[in-house]
């Protein structure tokens, strides 16, 4: 695909960092090949990349690194 279906922007293949949520777990994948729309920023992954991310998320693969990520709530408090 040379052009985004929605924004009509150009599509470029790039290696990116992707945050992937599986249930209540969060994974950060780096060096992921994706088609990135230059205008809207939408990212699309090939079936191989998706399968690999899902396999890692559901398996026992040891991570290369572990990041500690702060978590915040935006829930309104009632007084």
Question: Mind explaining what this structure looks like?
Answer:
The protein is α+β, with helices and mostly antiparallel strands. The chain has a single domain, classed as Roll (Ubiquitin-like (UB roll)), CATH 3.10.20. A three-stranded antiparallel β-sheet has the order 1-2-3. It starts with 10 loop residues before the first strand and ends in a 21-residue tail after the last helix.
Short description:
With 79 residues, this protein is an alpha+beta fold. It is built from one helix and three strands, in the order E-E-E-H.
So how many helices?
Answer: 1
Q: Give the fraction of residues assigned to helices.
A: 10-25%
N-to-C span: 53 Å
H/E element sequence: EEEH
**Averaging pLDDT over every residue, what do you get?**
91
Class in CATH? Answer: Alpha Beta
| Fraction of residues in β-strands | 35-45%
Topology:
Layout: E1 11-22, E2 25-37, E3 43-45, H1 47-58
Antiparallel strand pairs: 1-2, 2-3
Main traits of this protein?
flat; Ubiquitin-like (UB roll); three-stranded antiparallel sheet
């Amino acid at each position: 695909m040379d052009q985004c279906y929605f924004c009509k922007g150009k599509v470029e293949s790039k290696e990116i960092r992707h945050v992937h949520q599986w249930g209540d777990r969060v994974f950060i994948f780096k060096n992921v090949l994706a088609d990135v729309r230059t205008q809207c920023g939408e990212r699309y992954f090939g079936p191989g990349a998706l399968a690999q991310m899902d396999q890692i998320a559901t398996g026992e693969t040891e991570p290369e690194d572990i990041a500690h990520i702060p978590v915040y709530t935006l829930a309104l408090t009632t007084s």
